[in-house]
Amino acid sequence: MRDQRSHKRLTGFGWHNANMDVKAKFTKGVFYLGIVAAIGGVLGLASVIAPPAAPAWRSIGAIQPRLSPDGASIVFSYQGAIWRIPREGGVMRRLTTQARWDSDPSWSPDGRQIAYLSSGFAALIDAETGAPAPFPDRIRARGPIRFHRDGKKMLGEFYTGTSFVLAWLDLASGNAKPVLDPPATASRFALSDDGSEIAYATHRDVAGEQSGNDGPQADVWIVSVDGGVPKKILRFPSRIFDLAWNGPSLIVVSDVGGAHNDLWEIPIRSDPTPPRKLTFGQADEDAPSLAGGWLLYTDNREGPTALVTRNLATGDERLVTVTGLDFGKPTGTLILEFLEMGTGRPLSARVALQEEGGKPVAPPGSLYRLHGEQMDFFAERVAEIAVPAGNYHVHAYHGFEYRMAHL
User: How far, in Å, CA of 323 to CA of 333, rounded?
Assistant: First the structure.
């Protein structure tokens, strides 16, 4: 089936009027949608009968995953939105849609709500529907945030008027109470299983000096959730980039002894056992999370980050396979073709696809990057992307010798 209307086609990184070369066609009873209109610089998409069948993705680029308190579900950040998926894999479901960059999700103790950062401000949503939940207004934060066991306050680096410090945020009043005395930053922290203590890591860097100038070691501290004097429990031989609490030990992320980040287990009670390496191979492991007898982390052995679960009782591991994307609204397939003006020669391109008033979109499994407020990915001649129905802006780049194209 061929649409006879005049459409715009991305060529030479200017726009060239041509009869429709991106086709709308029926295949196996499913309607595939290409570019259907270009009006006022905005790409319009029509609704479709059904979304195209999706392959199973082993790695899609999910980051900052967290297991639900019962260990049955995973929440994570993906392409600037908060998503969730069953721990066993399946269809991943988008929970946030607004035009902000969402990251660092965290479950409430009862699993009914999810806190996260939205372009530098803390936010709270219903874990099932994604609907906004009551929350103090305009709370600035950075890095991970974690709920207290009572669900009435959250731990994180909150802005207290002069700087970001590790503090407890009271969800009723919006007041932030620093944990450390004097107040200090601590971007790498974890709460104990019983909620009574906080572990955090510091490095030996000195303000105004080159990072690592005084050595790569990391000091690990423990302090009561009520504050007080921190106790240094050990000096680890390399930097610690993240950590999670697991009973009598900590699971930390470090590049000690190699070029890649691995997971290490560090005993922190009276156990004299030395730190034990948990992951191996030519990949980076990151973002450990523990719940319900499971360890969850990310792994980039296949390029984009994959979600990996480990059964703590048996040691068995598996990748969390994604079988589909649920955007919460009608979805179609957008096909973009990149050609050189005049010659029609296919080109590679750096592409930014942004829903108007919504989220950026890139093909699952692509290595997307964030440049300022714009997320982009690389495409070779053609990009085929599943997108929710809406209006979109497309920016395409191919080096300094070509003009940037904007649709």
Answer: 16
